[in-house]
Amino acid sequence: MNAIEDLARLIKKLPGMGDKSSLRLSYHLLKTDPTFNKALGERIAAIQEKIHPCPICGSYTEDEICEYCSSPRRDRSLLMVVEESQDAITVNQAGIYNGLFHVLGGAINPLDGIGPDKLRIKELIKRIDEGAFKEVIIATNPTEEGDTTAIYIKRLLEDRDITVTRLASGLPIGGDLGYADKTTLMRSLKSRIRL
């Protein structure tokens, strides 16, 4: 195996990378300025040394406690539960939510051997019991795994005096009904609102 094939094999392990894409990226890196390649390699090598999960919410940070948990300007009565750290970043960048986050680290998926014990659900329950939250917004992905996780969390919180909500899902703004799949149409119909 030559160096290009070896690099392509490693790149292929990244999400969304197939045989052609990984080979194309390998050849692109071969033609790129060596200074860039060296800097990229150094950043990749150091990323796990510099970045770690926040001990409170689980979101990735370089600081001891992440920017969400350390900010005094965030609404501490709201807690949004997300699957991954990048979900919190996406919601935060939208600029429409100013509460706190809790990152589960995935979703319940028995076929992949991921049960509730492999996620940060115990930490979530402890955090809710020790906090002053009025609402928990479950923002897991609209997939079977995300729905299973949402239902599991909802059941754990049933005996607590707290409002539990779930993000609505359905047809996107500007979307075409003709291109919607059956599951999206079903969710849209179930989540319909009065005009």
The proportion of strand residues reads 5-15%
**Helical content class:** 40-55%
The spatial strand order of the largest sheet comes to 4-3-5-6
Number of strands: 6
Radius of gyration: 21 Å
Which quaternary structure do these chains form? single chain
Task: Provide a count of the helices.
Answer: 8
Largest sheet: 4 strands, parallel
Our measurement of the CA-to-CA distance between the termini, rounded to an integer number of angstroms, reads 63 Å
N-to-C series of helices and strands: HHHEEHEHEHEHEH
> Residue-averaged pLDDT, rounded?
92
Question: In terms of per-residue confidence, which ranges show pLDDT below 50 for 5 or more consecutive residues?
Answer: none
What coarse outline follows from CA principal-axis ratios? globular
**Structural class by SSE content:** alpha/beta
What does this structure look like?
The chain has 195 residues and is an alpha/beta fold. Helices cover 44% and strands 13% of the residues. It has eight helices and six strands; from the N terminus they run H-H-H-E-E-H-E-H-E-H-E-H-E-H. It has helices at residues 3-11, 19-31, 34-50, 67-70, 85-94, 121-130, 144-157, 182-190, and strands spanning 52-53, 60-61, 75-82, 99-103, 135-138, 163-166. Strands 4-3-5-6 form a four-stranded parallel sheet. Strand 5 (135-138), helix 7 (144-157) and strand 6 form a beta-alpha-beta unit.
Key attributes of the depicted protein:
6 strands; 195 residues; 4-stranded parallel sheet; alpha/beta
Architecture blueprint of SSEs:
Layout: H1 3-11, H2 19-31, H3 34-50, E1 52-53, E2 60-61, H4 67-70, E3 75-82, H5 85-94, E4 99-103, H6 121-130, E5 135-138, H7 144-157, E6 163-166, H8 182-190
Parallel strand pairs: 3-4, 3-5, 5-6
Antiparallel strand pairs: 1-2
Helix pairs in contact: 1-2
